[in-house]
Amino acid sequence: MNDLIPPLVSEGQILAEVNGCLGLITLNRPQALNALSLGMVRDMTTLLLHWASRPEIQAVAVLGAGREGKAPAFCAGGDIRFFHQAAHAGDSALGDFFTEEYRLNHLIHAYPKPYIALMDGIVMGGGMGISQGAKLRVLSERSKLAMPETAIGLFPDVGGGYFLAQCPGHVGEWLALTGQTIAAGDAIEWGLGDVFVPGAQWADLVAALKSSPQPSAEHVVATVMERADLAPASDPKAAAERIDRHFGEASLDRIMASLAAAGDDWSHQTLELLQHRSPTMMAVTLELVRRGRRLSLADDLRLERDLVHHCFHLRGGADRSETVEGIRALAVDKDHAPRWRPASVAEVDAAEVAAFFISPWAPQAHPLRDLK
């Protein structure tokens, strides 16, 4: 059995176990809401590649470690403090993180065996990246899904340009620009989740996956499905109509103008939220999602790798980066007062936005050139 679990490097931040035909991966950084470190990305990749080659493993499940007495978190994203430190230090590990994370995202989408994401609690950013490619995405009433990257002057990466673009209507633009958190019912309706298991059943589900006999992939899936129920009621169609009315507009300034003209509370609150985001990175984000509708996952991830390189380098390094400034305001100084440049949508330079979409690499030198 030991040869089914290869050596890991993240010093306990990833836990691996095997129960019958099932390989289980536990994200074990609960005090950081299981945010992904480079070591965790490497360990998940190592495990998935190893288990793909082993006939004894027929399915994989991934879950987040819990915190005693606190709400659960599947994965709250990437380690943004590391991004800030690495950007200022010129640390090449920053580029390695995004290259290897995006490779992991691609691996999960293409995984040859059932991969089950147990998305209990917070599922944001990088947590969406390691769950949206799953064959079975399992949610509870505690699930909180979001791609909140624009709040830190980034864009919805980890394949977000691809999977948000698959949402119906213009829901993808709304989720990408606002970073709005959604619950299980809306997530399932909009194609970002598959199955609802009530929170009261969750401990029993995890115990069964870890300890009950799991002789086949079909049995693993049945272990989940026998606990499935209807998600709590919501009205996603009414929400989608409102979203489409505004976020279907042709440009960022027209989206803002549409919200400003509407006069209802939802539009006012949404506009106020957008006014706190980086204007430049909202423009980049809108272009990404709209391009994403025409891209394969591999091409989207290559484009995102270009974009994230520019996020840290295009405007003259860390001191000019909207992303570094956004992380500073949210997680370092915590003054929640980012100084965006420019400060308004009206001042956004179309040429600067276009520059984000020019790859810094020739096609044959791209770090993700081999993704299919």
What's the topology here?
Blueprint: E1 14-19, E2 22-27, H1 38-52, E3 59-64, E4 73-75, H2 80-89, H3 93-109, E5 115-119, E6 122-124, H4 126-129, E7 136-139, E8 144-146, H5 160-163, H6 171-178, H7 184-189, E9 195-196, H8 199-211, H9 217-225, H10 236-247, H11 252-262, H12 265-274, H13 279-292, H14 297-313, H15 322-332, H16 350-356
Parallel strand pairs: 2-3, 3-5, 4-6, 5-7, 6-8, 7-9
Antiparallel strand pairs: 1-2
Helix pairs in contact: 1-3, 2-15, 3-14, 6-13, 11-12, 13-16
Q: How would you characterize this protein structure?
A:
The chain contains 16 helices and 9 strands. The protein has 372 residues and is of the alpha/beta class. It has one domain: 2-enoyl-CoA Hydratase, Chain A, domain 1 (Alpha-Beta Complex), CATH 3.90.226. The strands form 2 sheets. Strands 1-2-3-5-7-9 form a 6-stranded mixed sheet, with helices on both faces. Helix 2 packs across helix 15 and helix 3 packs antiparallel against helix 14. The model has no long low-confidence stretch (mean pLDDT 96).
